[in-house]
Amino acid sequence: MLSRAGPFLAPRRRALLGLAGWSLLESGQTFLGGYGVAQALDRGFLAGRPGVGLTWLAVAAVAVVAGGLATGRMFRRLADLVEPLRDGLVRRVVTGALCDAVSDAGAGHDRTAVSRLTHQTEAARDGFAGLVLVLRSFVFTCAGALLGLAALAPALLLVVLPPLAAGLLLFAVALGPMAARQREFLRTDEELAQRFGDIAPGLRDIVACGAEERTAAAAGKLIDAQTRAALSLARWAAVRTLALALSAQLPIVLLLAAAPWLLHRGITAGTLLGALTYLTQALLPALHTLMTGLGAAGTRLLVILDHLAGHSGARADVGDGRAPRPAPPAVVRVAGAVARVAHAPRVELRSVSFAYGPGARPVVDGLDLVVEPGQHLAVVGPSGIGKSTLFALVAGLLRPDSGDIRIGGVPVGRPDRYASAYVRALIPQEAYVFSGSLRENLLYLCPDGAPSPAVERAVEAIGLGHVVVRLGGLDAPVDPDALSQGERQLVALTRAYLSPARLVLLDEATCHLDPAAEARAEHAFAGRPGTLMVIAHRLTSARRASRVLVLDGVHAASGSHEELLTRSELYRDLVGHWEDPSA
Predict the structure, then answer these.
(1) What backbone phi and psi angles, to 5 degrees, belong to 350?
(2) Which of 65, 210, 242, 396 has the fewest CB neighbours in a 10 Å radius?
(3) Measured in Å, how far apart are the chain's first and last C-alpha atoms?
(4) Cα separations (Å) of 237 from 165, 253, 304, 411, 426?
């Protein structure tokens, strides 16, 4: 840290001298605090001259006021040190981001530059200010207190200095390892937070791939590393507490224990009270601030500076700037088997119940459902009734608490047998688009690839053609953030259309499309070989289905659109809401 601070502080001697000058007044406050109490007692109250005692206390009070004014001036000088650091960091971050943008040549941009420009630079400034305040306060407070003890009676230093020096030495020895442990704790904590941040958006993919155990094992290693780092940091924090007790609290105990010996050597009661004032009101708070703040503020500053330095120049090698293509989920690994199966699967649910946790109200309760091969089923119901949960159960992302789910006669949850027959494709509302070419996105569920005519037919069938033209062709790079939500859904729908899946589940996968685009996509899937299940959020989507399932949390009714209009009050209410949303 000193090697980094030297070049920065050298040209700012004037600010340092001003900071030291105003801090000297604070040392005067510390000196007069204990000395004034001692003189007020010895020369005033114990000598029968209360006026003298009150005068000395007034002097101590004036010193406190002067110290407060000096503190305000000191903060102005502190700004002369802190703000140039922030300005320099901002220049460095901006320069690095601009250099990265030029080197990327439009391949992408660094979104973390905004975070570094705002949060991290401000945190570095605050950490540096805290470090300067902690060190300044300790140095000048300690100097004022030790000078005061020497002025009262040099013999007091024989009691105070040994434990003070021993505690500071122990703290100095522990500071390096403690800072290293704290940095390790911060590193593991960041890695754990990043891993969980990466896992959370892809939970469906993880479950679909059957990668729960591998993901849990990888996260468990990070949790164990973070736990070990926290325990190691706690042990060194205990050493810091011991150093604080040795340097700040033991001198108080020794002073009280040595009081008879000191009184025998001519030390007055006022001098002892003044010494206790120095120890309890000056040294103890200063040492506590030093030992609790130095490690935290210093380590935090070093970590942030390391982060800023690591991103200020050219970024690490990221290839062509595109995110790597993720590994295809389990739904793809059996594409070869499915390609040989031309017929659609039959979906059966027998007395299926599911709740999110023990004791929770079942979201799906005793549901019986049969979807015949090649059927187009629309599922409707109030928001939160369990439509997405039902689709997750059929897709195998959730396991029912009771009941049986079979697809093509094979129980869901037996991928080894299920793979020989059919593949499911669940398209959620949040469309999954990754950085890469548009063709790579569309062939994501086709590990063996697909001929260009087949890709072009899928693009035409779903209605993705205008997106292909706007991006510059199928081999043009895709920036997911540059696509609208509707365009992302069209990409995901075309991907599923190209896939070998014979059971397609659209979980509001067209909610961001206009009615015409939604109708085109659903007509394309209805004419595709396989069974189709759709969560409908428009009346037209329900009308297009050959069968509609109405979920109301207690009973489930199914039939054609016309049949349900005559025998389902809930369905009539939903149709009325679709026709007049303001009703």
Answers:
(1) -120, 110
(2) 65
(3) 67
(4) 19, 23, 21, 55, 50
Name the DSSP class of 384.
T
Give percent of the chain with pLDDT exceeding 70.
78
Query: Which residue is listed with tokens 């200063």?
Result: 286
- How far apart CA 505 and CA 534 sit, in angstroms, is 6
Residue type, 557: A
Does position 310 have pLDDT exceeding 70, yes or no?
A: no
Element (H, E) at 196: helix 155-199
- For residue 406, which of 347, 356, 365, 463 has the smallest C-alpha distance? 347
Backbone φ and ψ of 40, nearest 5° = -65, -35
Spatial separation of the C-alpha atoms in residues 91 and 98, rounded to whole Å = 11
The whole-number pLDDT of residue 257 equals 93
Look at residue 129 and tell me whether its pLDDT is greater than 50: yes
Average model confidence (pLDDT) across the chain? 79
Q: At 558, give phi and psi (nearest 5°).
A: -140, 155
Q: Measured between alpha carbons, how far is 323 from 488 in angstroms, rounded to an integer? A: 17
- Sign of the torsion angle spanned by Cα atoms 537, 539, 545, 551: positive
Residue at token pair 């591998």: 214
Q: Is the pTM of this model over 0.85?
A: no
Instruction: Work out the average pLDDT over 519-526.
Output: 90
CA distances from 47 to 40, 56, 151 (A): 9, 13, 20
Which residue shows structure tokens 């899928």?
458
Closest CA to 378 of 204, 522, 485: 522
**pLDDT tens digits for 466-515?**
999 999 999 999 988 889 999 999 999 999 999 888 899 998 888 888 98
Dist. CA 19–CA 23, nearest whole Å: 6
User: In angstroms, what CA-CA distances link 36 with 152, 375, 476?
Assistant: 10, 94, 80
Which amino acid appears at position 275 of this protein? Answer: A
Tokens of 287: 């040492």
Q: Which of 165, 567, 502, 483 is nearest to 344 (CA)?
A: 502
Q: Tell me the CA distances in angstroms from 277 to 99, 140, 165, 271, 292, one per residue in order.
A: 57, 16, 19, 10, 22
